[in-house]
Amino acid sequence: METLAHVAALLLFSPLLLGVIQRTKAIAAGRRGASVWQPYFDLGKLTRKEVALSQTTTWIFVVAPAIVVATAVLAGLLVPLGSFATPISFAGDFVFFTYLFALGRFFTAAAALDTGSPFEGMGAAREVGFAWLTEPAVFFAFLALCRLSGSLRLSQMLRATEGGLWLEHTAPLLLTAAGLFIVLLTECSRIPVDDPNTHLELTMIHEVMVLDHSGPLLALVEYGAALKLFILEAMLLHVMAPTAEVGGWPGFALFLFGLSGIAVGIGIVESVMARLRLLHVPTLLIAAILSCGFAFLLLNR
Amino acid sequence: MTELLGASGQLAALYLLVGAASLLAASGVPGLLLDRRSLWGERLATLLTVIAGVAGLVGAFALLAATGSATLELPSPFPEQRTVLGGDALSGWFAVPVFLVGALGSIYSGAYWSARRHPRNGRRLRLCYGLLLASLIFILLARDGASFLMAWEVMALTNFFLVTIEENDLAVRRAGWVYLLYSHVTILGLFAFFVLQHRLSGELGFQRIPLQATSTAGAVLFLLALMAFGIKAGVMPLHSWLPSAHASAPSHVSAVMSGVVIKMGIYGLVRTTGLFGDLPLAWGVTVLALGAVGAFFGVVFALGQHDLKRLLAYHSIENIGIILLGLGLAMVGRSLGRPDWVLLGMAGCLLHVWNHALFKSLLFFGAGSVVHSTGSRDLEQLGGLARRMPATAMFFLIGAIAICGLPPFNGFVSELLVYLGLARAAVAPGAAWAALAAPVLAATGALAVACFVKVVGVVFLGTPRSAAATAAHESPLPMLVPMAVLATGCALLGVAPGLVAPALERAAAVWAGAPLAGQSLAELAPLGWVSAGALALVALAGVLLAVVLPVCRRGRVRQPALPTWDCGFAASSPRLQYTASSFAELITSRFAWALRPHERLPGIDRVFPASASFDSHVEDTVLDRILAPRVERARQVAARIRAYQQGDLQKYVLYIVGAIVALLLFNFRLGGLVTELYGR
Hints:
The complex is a heterodimer of chains A (301) and B (680).
Chain A lengths: L1 H27 L9 H11 L10 H18 L16 H22 L3 H32 L4 H5 L6 H4 L1 H18 L18 H4 L6 H25 L7 H25 L8 H19 L2
Chain B lengths: L6 H20 L2 H5 L5 H26 L4 E7 L6 E7 H24 L9 H20 L3 H19 L6 H32 L14 H18 L7 H8 L2 H25 L5 H23 L4 H29 L2 H36 L10 H4 L1 H14 L6 H18 L9 H24 L6 H4 L6 H19 L5 H12 L8 H4 L2 H32 L21 H9 L3 H4 L2 E3 L14 E3 L3 H22 L6 H31 L1
Antiparallel strand pairs in B: 1-2, 3-4
């Protein structure tokens, strides 16, 4: 039953977070904005459209969105929601988690180069050019959580905040949360790293990699992005607050509410800041690495 | 650890391996007796190599099925020495890739370096290839220093002849000289190692060294072994021979070199570190640090290359770094008394030896197909080959995903074992500094993804950048079958890694000895979950594809000739695509302090500049900026001494007379002092 709720939340709730971010940005800009359910309507519209494939593209272009969604769903089964047990959990699953997203990135970037267009090439180059900085930050965060929880399973590592550990180790957990927030903004292509709304060359990273996808392929790509946002937000929420304290179904509902809260926070950050110059994005990511690295250092005094 | 084979079975396996190695050595000989253009010499060589390969694989797997070792003593040409050959699980583990990649390479060379098209050097290639493989097996089986050194020397020399097979090319010759230079340093180091070991333990060979952990003799032995085997393996900063040598050799030879020959350096390091009774912590930390540095900078240098085979050679350096991370972790675990780290580190190290042999050979075979088809190794001249060579593209993609360590292929499993060991170090109080290697490994993995997206995207995807790429054709069957076998191996090890776990434990136990008792790989590493995860991934992706593919097929049928959206540029050209250098520029610009690229920027000196060109080239920094200037300065100093060597006979007679006079004076005046000194 709990597994069913986990899978249902993962598959059905994730586009809502995109809608919450959009609505927050609209309200902050003084507009009314589209409904929070708009991403669902968009996905439905895209699935009904036909696919237009360029003659340059090969089977990699078609396979990539499916792999992105498959890896995201599998990764989502590794992250705990609320206080429920995760469907899949084994020692070292945090490595599997990270490398699943890396597989998705490989295929997205390869599909971008498949089109033979310089715009997609630009996006792919920047995407892989930033990913090598987010991975060490994530691994430092995982090492810090391993140390705190004494376990190598992601579900127990993310529950390291419970039992009063949050009060005892506030500084390392704050630093880890800050680093993970920057990683979240980068991986989910949010301002200040990337602007999901414009299509100018200056702001092209994720949006432009999928410029040539259409119809159900684009629906899969956008759904994969929603899943990734959901999963990374869930990880961040576990590190930010002792989420397993409130048990059972109320805790689960509270967790989903917390995810929406983080989405509102992302919307506020996007409305308040401007996009960083591309050359300064690696500096931000190195700050994330240092933040998580310092957290690990503090735990090893 | 159960034992499946008794002592007599092990001895039989040893005889089988010796026989297979001898057959490999003889495989090139019949071709010498036949005409240089004859296909029969080539086919006979391939047949003998494949037979030897199959027999050798049976023998190696038999060795892996048993604990303990079998020895064979033979008379030796050296006085008071015995030639001792021995086989145990560790030798068997390293022998499996030798036979597999060797046999597949021989099948590949039938089409890649056929006798008809390469009459001048085909027979030499096949002879040296067989000798190289045989010498590798004898290195693995040698238990005494003399036979080890002889086999090593044969390996180094045959490898040199194979690297310089295209001797008309200046770059190839230069690569060969650099390789030979480094090989000589290696062999000198090995001589010093064995002589010192003989002095200390009285035996000339791989015996247990009864030394205290902190003695200087032990430290000198370790440093000699690290230097000598490190050069062979391609450990940074001793790696400079590797990129040019692997790029200049024919592709199937590069596959053998990258997949198997450099693993002899790893074998040497594993054997020698296993000889010491107790290991100081500093040694394990050194190996761990060298592994991290080599892995990270190996992939950074790979990003700067636009020669396909040089790029793959730098990735070999990266993967050797990952193998050293596993070995270093095992050494640290042995120093600190943590058997779980020992097992995980050693298992990761050894499994990555197999995995790297599989996917690197696959990638080099793919590169060979590309070179065979287009005539070019330059990434900037290729493109769009996936439509012209679909099978090669598919196999190369499998190799690329495997080398990045991504599930569901085999690279992920060995990296997971290393990560598990490092994470355990993070949890243990007081030894968490070892876990700093984990983010470095993660960054390396992400950079490897960047590099292989670049390679696959620029070579196989997009539109062709030159006429040669447009005219490319699929490789013939003898070149596709080895790639298919290796790709299947990658998939099999990725989906079912539990199959090799018992053999892996036995091989790791040879190194670790007693402290491994009680630990089992099945308990420490979730290999069953890895299998389940890989299968679940494939199943999920398959389900989604089954839904999406019919729609896409309808789209292609309805509109078959759509161009890519190009923002309204009317005249799109293949030159508009991202090149390999521009793709990697965001990363290589950050590492320009290490890469030090030679750039020729477009000089704009007129108001309306016409055509301009940009050229960027990354040489090996250690060789190019550190060693070469110093060698040049040494040559200049030596040139002054050369002034005394003019070829004038009278002056030479004067030198001889002067030397005799000086010796007589020395003997006459100091004779008494000398007898006093030497008489005591």
